[in-house]
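User: Continuing from earlier, I have the next pair ready.

Assistant: Great, send them over.

User: Here they are, in order.

Assistant: Folding the first of the pair now:
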Amino acid sequence: MMTKEAEPPLDERIVQVLRHLGITRAHIAARMAPDWQGLTARQTDLVASLTLVCPATIDPNGLAPVASLLAVFTGDQGLPAEHLRKSLAGLPDATLITLRDYHRLAPVLKVRTL
């Protein structure tokens, strides 16, 4: 019986692609934490800049090593934007870009009743 090899984490796969292409530093843009967390935790030398577009949440501690390279876009309305601004208060070197009259909607959950 064949065993399936575990797929490497996303950040390792990104590093493999960058190295294959001969890229030593890259500008990273993302929205969801799994897309960038591994890079900011283990591969900070590869991050030339990190741009987060309307992330649902952020962990200021995890972003501290790249705070001076960080730009975050968010709306100016709604709870997600408010929480994000509060989280970024702990990262004074980060850049916050606020989109006026923009309300990032929380994901819609489909509820099925029986």
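And the other member of the pair:
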Amino acid sequence: MGTLAPCAGRVTVTTKGLATNMYLRTRVGGHWGPKLKSAGYDTVVIKGKAKGPTYLFIDNGGVHFGKAEHLWGKDTRQTTQGIQEELGDQSIKIPHTPTSPTNPQS
């Protein structure tokens, strides 16, 4: 499973804007790609829209959506610590898109 090649753990995220109907694609590195693969997943497809701030937790045991209102407006470090404390696992790694504290709907 996987490769020993450095920088091979890249992830592509594609989304469609609700207001513009345009597609956006970005590529990222870090822990998320290898962690996703080690949990047994190659692809994640999310359809629809959450009713409020939500996080997605993927583990060997499956997939879980959690409420994230208490994390809204936090920076990456605060969000990571909040989820780690909530789920009782300090080894959890997360990709995180911070929101502006002054405009949480951005």
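Worth noting for the second one:
Residues 11-87 form one domain. Strands lie at 11-16, 23-28, 54-59, 62-67.
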